[in-house]
Specification:
The protein has 371 residues and is an alpha+beta fold. Helix content is 36%, strand content 13%. Strand 6 (160-161) and strand 7 (168-169) form a beta hairpin. GO terms for molecular function: alpha-1,6-mannosyltransferase activity.
């Protein structure tokens, strides 16, 4: 197992034997972060642990751009800017992921191994890692624009109101003062998600742009404290998705691996949006589309213990023109950037024609978006 990791030396007790596996290292770092508020994202219980995944930690032959982004995360972990905290860093390989699933999610092992595609396995893995250890997940083609120890401030968790329902969320001034004076105690934020699509729900813009929902979350980056319930809800749905695939394969007389499912829908951004929206609607009475940043210039919104960043948070743009209110990489709301170099993608003519058909003709709404 060639997974690689870095844990700040000050996080490790002198008598602590060094970890032998990435799982032991993640356990150690998660426990160490819990003991010190400076080792967590501000106003949160999210430990400063970075999780990334690559097929191997031997990066010879890997695209230079990918290596440069991994190096950016490592530099942010080892030598952060003045005033920022060091972080633990974990680069998981396939063997490390398999060991993690077998040790921590034994009941999912067969489905994980037999049913899901490689990209879907990574989707599921990132949720498992953050569920058990907490931390920040970022695809290897993400670039940190702000150090995670600076990601949240008091304005991000302050009270806001859904003008349509009149319901308020977040912390009022009294609660904000109390939280600011008790940083050693449990903090209000246990998860951070970012918006990747923020379209007008009264139009068909979202699906013409290849999104399932007008307001859709990304999963190329997110952050969580250990045991945040939305992550468990996501995982609770995995067996049903696997059973559906097994039944379909049986009825069609083919193997499960011969079936084609859209990973974006089954395990990716649509799946995390489904899990998060259901949880916040069910437990906090949220009107999902109230999270839009189209009407307030794009502000973070706290609902329950979850922060939803505006589209600029994890999806800033380098283009001159913005479709959905995305702002530039140097905007104060931009935490990280995604350069969409996903190596798992490959060209499929049906998928490519579907993009053209949706964009120019407003048709082909339900065609598969990834293959």
């Amino acid at each position: 197992m060639f997974s690689a990791w870095y844990i700040p030396p000050e996080w490790i007790d002198e008598n602590q034997p060094p970890p032998k596996t990435i799982i032991q290292a993640a356990q150690l770092a998660s426990k160490a972060a819990k003991s010190n508020p400076e080792r967590r994202v501000p106003f949160s219980n999210i430990p400063l642990l970075i999780h990334q995944k690559w097929d191997t930690t031997r990066l010879n032959g890997t695209k230079d751009m990918i290596v440069s982004y991994i190096e950016d995360w490592l530099v942010a972990s080892i030598s952060p800017p003045t005033g920022s905290s060091r972080m633990a860093y974990f680069l998981w390989d396939n063997e490390g992921i398999s060991a993690l699933v077998k040790e921590y999610e034994k009941d999912l092992t067969a489905d994980f191994t037999e049913v899901f595609s490689p990209v879907e396995k990574v989707d599921i893995f990132r949720v498992i890692a953050c569920k058990w250890f907490g931390g920040i997940y970022g695809d290897v083609d993400t670039k940190p624009l702000q150090h995670p120890s600076k990601w949240l401030d008091s304005a991000d968790i302050s009270e806001w109101t859904d003008e349509m329902t009149g319901k308020s969320y977040g912390l009022d001034s009294t609660a904000l003062t109390r939280v600011s004076q008790s940083l050693n105690e449990s903090q209000p934020v246990n998860a951070i998600w970012g918006i990747e699509c923020d379209a007008n729900p009264n139009t068909n813009d979202h699906w013409r742009w290849a999104y399932t929902y007008p307001l859709q979350l990304t999963n190329w980056a997110f952050a969580s404290a250990p045991n945040q319930p939305i992550l468990q809800h996501y995982l609770d749905l995995i067996p049903d998705k696997a059973a559906e695939a097994r039944n379909k394969a049986s009825q069609s007389g083919v193997s499960v691996s011969d079936l084609h499912y859209d990973p974006v829908t089954r395990t990716g951004p649509v799946a995390v949006t489904d899990a998060t929206s259901w949880w916040l609607e069910e437990h906090d009475g949220l009107r999902w589309n109230a999270l839009t940043g189209r009407e307030d210039g794009g502000k973070p919104k706290l609902v329950g213990d979850v922060i939803i960043l505006p589209i600029t948070g994890f999806s800033p743009t380098q283009e001159k023109h913005s479709r959905m209110g995305e702002k530039p990489w140097d905007d104060p709301e931009a935490r990280l950037a995604h350069v969409a170099m996903g190596s798992w993608r490959h060209t499929n003519l049906i998928v490519e024609y579907g993009k053209f058909c949706r964009t120019f003709f407003g048709m082909c709404k339900d065609w598969q978006k990834m293959w």
